[in-house]
Amino acid sequence: MSNNEIPDAERSLLARGEDCADGCAVLQDTLPLKLVREADLRLILTSLKGSPAATPPVLGLIYQCKQAEQALAAANNERKNKDTECKAFLTSARTSLLPILGRDPSPEWELAGYANAPAYSNAVPGTQEGRLQCLSALAVYLTQHPTYEVPAGGPRPEVTATLALALHNQLSTCRTAANSASNAQNDALTAKRAALQSLRRTLIALVDELQLRLPDDDPRWEVLGLNIPANPRPPEPASDLTLTSAGLGRILAEWEPGTRSDDDRILIQIVGVDADYREYGKSGGDGEELIKNLPPGATVKVKIIALNGSLEASSGPEAQFVVV
Fold first, then answer.
1. What does the pLDDT look like over 63-121, one tens digit per residue?
2. Which of 8, 61, 234, 254 is deepest in the core (most CB within 10 A)?
């Protein structure tokens, strides 16, 4: 494909797809293009990016993937919080049972759910799975020994079979929800990756066909956002650079790749330390970079220079951010 390699990085691939779709709209009938046309590219791009104006609106696979990722994070957080509540209850229950069952492991502790493999002990189980089973056993044990219960409303934390069973069921529900969310996130990611791969294969097919339809020095290559094979020019500058905090001493830089770019130089300047911009690294063409090991409280300037092989854009977007 000469110097029109199709990028792997998501942002660059989507930008290339949009440019080629726009170019196909202009040239597909005059060339004419037969293998890949604008409608082929628009169909894949819409499946990925969505179409809010459509009736009904199309939620793209990229949005669905992010939505599934957020749902998984929320479900995992719910499970974690519920498990913390269960652990606190089991700790209170153990404290309440110590004067009755003694400090040493025993068959009674085992009946109460506090027998942990491989070390035989009566400690609160160290795993979430262990705590789930302990709650179930404890609910049965307290049902058989109601005088061991501590009712709600007193000076000590409630320890009852009813609460043990309720917490068991709640934790089980949270675990099921988290597992379902994980499966949904995996399905969404698989679908997005398949669509991105389809877009990449379609763009490769388009470039292959263009090599048959256009001379290597024809300027119409650039109408499709591609290099003129015999005379590649520097890419258009990147745009829309935004900087956000990514934790202590870290900044996430995100930008829109420039037309015909296949990589980017990332330049940074720590105000008051660096006299000018200095090289931080290259992005690999994915339109984002996590900039690490920055001094907290410092003002950092970032500049992005789009690359097309060894050719550089004449300018690039700049932004600055105060590091957390």
1. 999 999 999 999 999 999 999 999 999 999 999 999 999 999 899 999 999 976 555 68
2. 61
Final residue before a domain boundary, out of 186, 202, 232: 232
Distance CA 30, CA 19 (A): 18
CB 53 within 8 A of CB 159: no
| CATH number of the domain residue 317 falls in | 2.60.40.10
288, 221: one domain: no
Q: 144: which 2 tokens?
A: 């058989």
Q: In sequence order, what are the beta bridge partners of 150?
A: 159
**Cα within 13 Å of Cα(1), Cβ side:** 16
* Count of Cβ atoms closer than 10 Å to residue 9 Cβ: 19
Cα 111-150-160 angle, rounded to 5 deg = 55
Q: Are 127 and 160 in the same domain?
A: yes
Structural domain count, the chain? 2
Q: Are residues 150 and 202 in the same domain?
A: yes
Tell me the C-alpha to C-alpha distance, in Å, between residue 159 and each of 80, 122, 146, 287. Answer: 21, 17, 10, 54
Read off the tokens for 170.
Answer: 């709640």
Q: Domain of 207?
A: 1-232
d(CA 25, CA 43) in angstroms, rounded, equals: 14
pLDDT for 181 equals 98
Same structural domain, 300 and 185: no
Backbone angles phi, psi at 207, to 5 degrees: -65, -40
User: What is the C-alpha separation between 99 and 96, in angstroms, rounded?
Assistant: 7
User: Where do runs of H (alpha helix) occur along 102-127?
Assistant: 107-111
Neighbour order of strands in the sheet with 288-291? 239-245, 251-256, 288-291
Q: What is the number of alpha carbons within 13 Å of residue 189 lying toward its C-beta?
A: 10
CA distance 220 to 237: 20
